[in-house]
Design goal:
eight-stranded antiparallel beta barrel, four-stranded antiparallel beta sheet, alpha+beta, 27% helix, 196 residues
Amino acid sequence: MSAYLHNTIPNLKPFDYDRHHDSHFINQQWVLVNGISKKKAIYTFRDDNILEIRRKDATVKTSWTICIQNIFTIETEDGIINVKAYFKDDDILVLNHQDKEEFAMYINTTNYSEELNSIEDIQEYLKTKYQKKVNKVIHKHKFYYISKSKEFGPCTVKELKVKVDNEDISAYCFVRDVNEEDYAKRLRVIDLLQEL
């Protein structure tokens, strides 16, 4: 992966055929983020190596192939290009141009009910997506807490909420993740509850 791409979008995972091809890639509606404010384009990679590019005014059909591992060849209006495919998340695809310091980012909107037509729409999509992800992680995760100079736990956020509701502990008790050694982050129960 080029340093340019890695510095711009950290923590990318290479396309893995077994994991991504059928469930995350084929027949999904990928909205191109680059240039969305000028012209929206939806890319759909089909099983038969057909790439459909749908714009407001027309649909163009071209081709794509997997050469090796995560390297794709895509036929574009400008000719054939080679790209490396990465996932930032299961529904964020990045195609890194192999001959230039350029990449294209796509968002999978197949299961998203709202239209993505602008940068603001993308920002709202990402905000909603990561709020859901944080909520999911927080619900499952466990934390220790300090009450009256003693440490207790680990407890889920749901269990902490019950303790606060029953007035067994203060909402202002400090908490630490089970994977942290101390309370240096100064996180409180109330901070976790606000994420629910």
